[in-house]
């Protein structure tokens, strides 16, 4: 699995747009690549597959924080091995996903999941991996959960805040709190 300090892989994937455009067959699809949203921090999180049980809870939680990520000059990309058509169908028929504000990327060839090293060896799906990638394309945070356990998007936001201070941040540090100052 790729980790902190590694370059996030190059990719180009078809995605379902966030917002109302993602629910309209005429406007739903776009291409997203590692060059998209240049100069921004990227939150890239993977889920195993659509139409499952834990996945929508995480996706909705990231969606609720989308404005907070955007306020920090970060863009959220959700990724699974499902096609863009499956993503759109899921968004259309799952009440909690209709208002999803970020793009759902289709890694149907499993190229990005494989390049990140987060493809489950038995199930052949992406593990619940999360990466924070800085504007230069370097991974600054990496985390992976078992297929049965959802992650905490609020913690991802907290870590992004800490990374963006470029300071020493103690355990459980939150935005607005004091950072550590080493003795001179």
TrEMBL record:
Q: What is the lineage of its organism?
A: Bacteria, Pseudomonadati, Pseudomonadota, Alphaproteobacteria, Acetobacterales
What is this protein for, i.e. what is its function? Thiol-specific peroxidase that catalyzes the reduction of hydrogen peroxide and organic hydroperoxides to water and alcohols, respectively. Plays a role in cell protection against oxidative stress by detoxifying peroxides. Together with AhpD, DlaT and Lpd, constitutes an NADH-dependent peroxidase active against hydrogen and alkyl peroxides as well as serving as a peroxynitrite reductase, thus protecting the bacterium against reactive nitrogen intermediates and oxidative stress generated by the host immune system. Does not however seem to play a role in detoxification of isoniazid.
Entry EC no(s)? 1.11.1.26, 1.11.1.28
> Where does the record place the catalytic residues?
55 (cysteine sulfenic acid (-soh) intermediate)
Q: Where is the Thioredoxin domain?
A: 2-165
**Descriptive protein name:** Alkyl hydroperoxide reductase C
Q: Name one GO cellular component term.
A: cytosol
Subcellular location(s) per record: Cytoplasm
Q: Where does it primarily localize?
A: cytoplasm
On assembly, the entry states: Homodimer; disulfide-linked, upon oxidation. 5 homodimers assemble to form a ring-like decamer. Homodimer; disulfide-linked, upon oxidation. 6 homodimers assemble to form a ring-like dodecamer. Identified in a complex with AhpD, DlaT and Lpd.
Keywords attached to this Swiss-Prot or TrEMBL record, sorted alphabetically, are: Antioxidant, Cytoplasm, Disulfide bond, Oxidoreductase, Peroxidase, Redox-active center, Stress response
Which Gene3D superfamilies does UniProt cross-reference here? Glutaredoxin
Looking up InterPro entries in the UniProt record yields:
AhpC/TSA, Peroxiredoxin, Peroxiredoxin_AhpC-typ, Thioredoxin-like_sf, Thioredoxin_domain
Query: What GO molecular function annotations does the UniProt record carry, in alphabetical order?
Result: NADH-dependent peroxiredoxin activity; thioredoxin peroxidase activity
Give the reaction(s) catalysed: a hydroperoxide + NADH + H(+) = an alcohol + NAD(+) + H2O; N(6)-[(R)-dihydrolipoyl]-L-lysyl-[lipoyl-carrier protein] + a hydroperoxide = N(6)-[(R)-lipoyl]-L-lysyl-[lipoyl-carrier protein] + an alcohol + H2O
List, in alphabetical order, the GO biological process terms annotated in this UniProt record: cell redox homeostasis; cellular response to stress; hydrogen peroxide catabolic process; response to oxidative stress
